[in-house]
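Predict the 3D structure for this chain.
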Amino acid sequence: MTDPTTVDGDPGERLARVAAAVDAACAAAGRSPAEITTIVVTKFHPVGLIRALYALGVRDVGENRHQEAQAKTAELGNLEGLRWHFVGQLQSKKARQARRYAHAVHSLDRDSVVDALADDSGSVLDGFVQVNLTDDPGRGGVPEGDVERLAERVLSTPGLRLRGVMAVAPLDEEARPAFARLLAVSDRVRSLSPTADAVSAGMSYDFADAIAEGATHLRIGTAITGSRPDAR
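Done. Predicted structure below.
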């Protein structure tokens, strides 16, 4: 199989390579590709690329900077069915604004963000508790031992639906054992809420390991979008 992480080719070719690799990883894990949501992370890429991906069938895109996400969602509001996932660290003071465009926030990591996303209007935002799989408190996410407490806060917050957990694999360890730990954390969260069964894990270089350990949502950037432009 062609290396799915290569940035060669046009968006359609890259998308097809990743889709084939996802199918293969699912087959190896005894899972169905229908269980997987692939979120294309479009950080720094122009809206023209998102339009092209939409034409190719992509309906889930991710951004990790509020200002950029806000501008793109405003410009692409005519793309029916396009779902925006916020996957970066969210400032509490920007949370209310992010709620207006996001389908899901994958980075719930502290009480202030959860509280800022509360809404009693009847609209529902999907949320993932971000788990820090390292011993470095500077990394995003809550410590593994604090997950249930924050999950319970999400469950009690109006306008938020706890979908599951999210994590980034540590840089200094093999990805698969880290994702196995995340799956164990997911099991604990499901004991609080059986419907909070989603696992957001896996990026361009480790999504096969994430699928092997139960990931349901992949956050894939360069393998589909190509090399990232310089920050604007």
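The domain at 11-225 is CATH 3.20.20.10 (TIM Barrel).
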